[in-house]
Automatic annotation (TrEMBL):
Pfam families from the UniProt entry: MMPL
Bilayer-crossing regions: 165-186, 193-217, 229-248, 275-295, 301-327, 358-380, 509-527, 534-555, 567-586, 607-635, 641-667
Gene3D superfamilies: Multidrug efflux transporter AcrB transmembrane domain
Name of protein: MMPL family transporter
Record has Glycosyltransferase as a keyword: no
Amino acid sequence: MGSIGRGVVTVVTGRRSWMVVLLGLLLGAGIMVGLGEAEREPHPTDAVPAGADSTRAVELQEQLPTEDTATAIIVFSADEIGGSLGDLEQVVADLDTGAEGPPAFVQPAEDGTAAISVVNVPAKTATEVADSVAGLRSDLADAAPEGVEVQVTGPAAVRADLTEVFAGANTTLLAFTASVVAILLLITYRSPFLWLIPLTVVGIADRTAAILATQVLAGFGVPWDESTIGILSVLVFGAGTNYALLLISRYRDELRIHEDRHEAMAAALPRTAEAVLASAATVVVGVLTLLLSLTPNTRGLGLASAVGILVAAAAVLLVLPATLVLFGRWIFWPRVPHVGEEGQARRRSAWRRIGDRVAVRPSAFVGGTLTLLAVMAFGLTQIQLGLPASEQFTDKPEAITAAERLAESFPEGAADPTTVVTATEEESAVEQLVADLEALEPVGSVSVGAQGGGVTQLNLVLTAASDSPDSQAALDEVRTVTAEVPQTHVGGTAAEAADTADAGARDRLVILPLILGLVLVALMGILRSVLAPVILVASVIASFAAALGVSWWLFTEVLGFSGLDPIVPLYSFLFLVALGVDYNIFLITRTLEEARAVGTREGVLRALSATGGVITSAGILLAAVFAVLGVLPLVVLAQVGAVICIGVLLDTLLVRTVLVPAIVLILGERFWWPRRVERVRQVGQVGQVEAVQPAAPAPSEAGRHRES
């Protein structure tokens, strides 16, 4: 450790550590009071790929000389709607939506059980859309004739319901996350006092990270949405608490050696910092790869996550140790550590006993573990990506149920028309475009919408629902026609879904290999090894494949969904590789430390004994925190949370406990290739250093270490 590092440790763990705590509190309070979270209004292009055909359609629509409005579709339904048509026309005529638009009309369905009307509502902001749709629904409920059910769907209603879904969602998510962390910390430490310290420090770090992240995003002009801060909170609480568990575990061990708590923390902090900084570096490098995504909101999540991890690591390495040393050993009550007690590494703990059993037949454990992971990953052979709009919410909002009712009596595409936007100024070219589109078999009708500024919008009602496979085939036919007309683009839900799927495939092709490469290079730099990082990254990939395979089966066969959202593999792979490798880092850095004294094989067994409890606690906590994403009503977040939860548990309980130690036991010193581990031997009172050469294990090595 350099002089700067030693100076920081002295300041943080010394007698004046209270100054660090005070400075941290003042800095956090200043950021929360002085800055606050940056605010921005969502833009229609935030969630669609840059440069895509549907994105260009949205950009052309913005050139139309119309006020900011959105379309709402009113759905009336009854056993027999015909006798109420006059009353319904009067209801619609009396509506005051606050937005200009074509004269309202009521169109009955051929089956006589439903009718629809199309109106515009103000849409300058998401809040205005939500308020307008809420007011429209209230007015219609009061004015609807007896026996007629009325619902509102269409783009405006979907946007309003999505806004309502996230109203207070981040607060709910934060409350659930903090509660889960508090309960698990209380169970882990079994102390009525100790859990409060890491929870408070990480909680302040979470709020600070949310503010700094949104300010950085706003400063660089990178979009973000409501889910970004929710995922950020989960990430900061999960990673921050993991780092805190590691620090406190090492501090407890050092209190068994040092009488003075400041000296104990001065010994624990540098050793913990090595693992925490290595972990934070891999996570930051991993999440920053999202900046290469074609989707603006995904880029925002990557940058926000990097800021959050940096804040979490800084809080745990600076503020938490300074806070802990303010208190005496009593903070651990009733399990107070005393000088002279045996440390975790040398105890015959349950983790050491597991390690000893693995050491008897490590090859068998490697084969059995890989077979189990392969069986769990079998679901990957069946996986399908794509989640229809009707399955996007855990509780269907009115916009979705109304669209389903509309599809029973009208062409399925009527609830969500496809738009064709053209900047062609020649009227004859527009007329020919309309004729060509009407000639397509999957197109039910074409109507001319808003015009002006040299831009014309056409509304197409497809015969298939916008989220069905048939609509994608119809979209291909529409785009074949529009491709022949300059400055003409296709938008709407079906077009955006197709473009998003294509962009997702491109992102996975570019980002996933890059994540692996960067994490691999980071581990090589940290461990100064080639073989060890390759093994660690490969083990995490195996966990991811198994977790995704099990999640596919869970969501499709058990919960009845038709597939996984296209973003799930990217997000879950990113966080699993970046965070899952943490547990291997914690284990292997401790193995390296122990190997200098007793060799790699005994070192990994001691490391497993020393870190088994804390890593298991950290893994269960992180898995539980990501599972909390399921409290949000979006299915995509529940799916991401489930994959990460399963993957982290596999990493913690199977890969780190059995697979990696077994591989290390088989390879011995060769595990570090091409690095040579400096072995410290005690000769009398003088410590000597011996370079340990990579060598093949002796046939009876495992058995000897089992007896050690």
